[in-house]
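Hey everyone, long-time lurker, first post.

I ran two proteins through the pipeline my lab uses and got sequence/structure pairs for each. Pasting them in order. The first:
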Amino acid sequence: MPTPARVRADACPGVFAPHDAADGPLARVRLPGGTISAPQLRALADAAEACGDGDLHLTSRSNVQLRGVTRPGLADRLTDAGLLPSTSHERVRNVLASPLSGVRGGLADVRGLAASLDLALCATPELASLPGRFLFAFDDGRGDVAGEGADVCWLAAGPAEGTLLLAGGDTGRRVARADAVATLVEVALEFCRVRGSAWRVAELDDPAWRGTPVPRTSAEVPAGLIPRDDGFAAGVVPRFGQLSAAQARALAEFGPALVTPWKSLVLPDVPADVFERLGFGGEAWGTTACIGRPGCAKSRADVRADAVFRPGLRAHFSGCERRCGKPSQSHVDVVAEAGGYRIDGRWVPLDEMEGNL
């Protein structure tokens, strides 16, 4: 069943329209395909220190957020770094791509498709009106980003051909890799024409916008060294998806990076001793959390201080029922309430929480 259409304005944050959080304005920087060069990563680190709270906060859409942006100059810094190619299309540049494509596995190499789509989006004036929550994706056939809730996705079926997914459903429409970008632009234009007040494809009533549900594949990027034919890549998993400016600069020493939809990063080409040189990042944290107090006025608790880490535990701690940042994969749902937390619907006092997870 379609989700009821939205009745309030789209307030998805960007750089020019930040969200007013309890700890100050929050600016979201789009990284189509999660790709960021080493100079851009350094520029983000500098911007976080000069304009915000000093940290980079990874998101579940392969983007980066800066919090507490109370000092001027952010837009100029990002523009100079090539991270703001369009002021009119800033908030619609939401594109996922399989992070390990071209590194290991997959049926097709989708590297470059996100950048090509970004250019096409920014060159199409009509698409500036897309809602900020509309999401594109290119899946190399392993099924990783196809399960991340994209409105329109090209899912590889082989090196040169794939299928078109709408809101996670297979439409049965075959699309050549060479036509994938143009097809996704075509779908987005049609959505703009018919959407009314809908923000997402799943909210449309027309059955023509549905497909056969595609089984979800659990394919998160592994933490640690990732063997490839000619060396190593690395999966870096910062706690709570949060990097200090110093950590970001340390990562940039190893070249470009890919931000994943799972609040981690892939360094495509690294030496075997990368984690010894970094001093962080090889842990496979299964626990995630929203920003909690004091960053969010709606949160009932400092969820990051209360979060429990244990091997094999996959849990998401939320300060309220909105459950911001929750993973799409199966997880233990932990929501703050007065004096404790509700764990998968069962209230547990704070001092007994760890024993009940």
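...and the second, right after it:
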Amino acid sequence: MHIQIISNLDQVSRSAWNALVQDNNPFVRHEFLAALEHHSCVSSQFGWLPRHIAVYEGDKLIGAMPLYEKYNSYGEFVFDHAWAEAYKRHQLRYYPKLVSAIPYTPASGQRLLAKSGQEAEIYPILLASALQLAETLEASGLHWLFPLAEEQDWLSQQQLFTRHDCQFHWRNFGYQSFDAFLDTFSSKKRKNVKQERRKVQEAGVELRILDGYTATATDWERFAFFYQHTFESKWGIPTLNEGFFKEVAANLPDQVILVMADKNGECIAGSLMFRSATRLYGRHWGCTEYFDSLHFEACYYQGIEYCIQHKLQVFEPGAQGEHKVPRGFIPTLTRSSHWLASPAFQQAVRQHTLYEQRSVADYMQSVYAHLPYREDFVAKHLKL
């Protein structure tokens, strides 16, 4: 058995890497991660340097960890700016750090890839290898963001810090149609959703639901423009680009869902989602013209309809956003694991994470009071 640190994912066999991916998660697949590298979406320019870990038994890949050497905290969605500031005040260096995550993607998925049945053997090897790399790079810490629940449970047992946060996910309770989904709402909330959908129709906006096969080069060029326009208008950094979108669509055509909105023959907005075997993930949105409720239609309602039609279990529409709650999305706990090299911060950070966990629990409890669902439905299906 031997370990390799990979700075270019093309060094690893695509089929060997993907054989370790569960649920056909699009973001953990070789095609997605490699496309980020091919189009410089992860690079020194953006402070993401690939440092993936590969575990081989002979010449067979049996374990892996997507891992990056980071020189900022951009695109992580588990915010540690207070930690970085504390290091700075004490004249300590916070960067580089090592982060196991999918860049710019706050979606749950594997961070400890292992051959089925060998997790108990491979997980400790991946952890030890990552810690050794952190020591070699003199990194301030090591962070696993949005791992699968079973991975997080294991990491929590390794004396790491655990952070909690909240996202809003939609769950499929066996709905046969969008109307059946709305029937679980209170009458007022149901009326509000129908009104929002009607506004888009009455505005004369037409929606096209595309995948990697049916979306044209022009569609991707237009969507890339929407994406860039959105980030620049909000003073953000547009790290993805047209080449990346086109490559992912070509290599994962069945897992890309592109919703394009047309008005009077002109494409004026777009929403990009990805799917696994059981989940839908909402990722990016952009527009050049504003229409009332179009964002909700393209990013949420079309996604819910897609989940119902294709019998997907969960819809993760991205980070934050209490506006998702009245549209049927439920507060959902997210967790991450963290290790810091400096012993001086151990006790303070541990206390901070415990306080944060209590605050998140209180927040989720308060949000539950505002769910749009009928009381009998909540009592039967939803428990905090």
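Reply from user beta_strand_b:
Welcome! Quick read of the second one: The mean pLDDT is 96. The radius of gyration is 21 Å.
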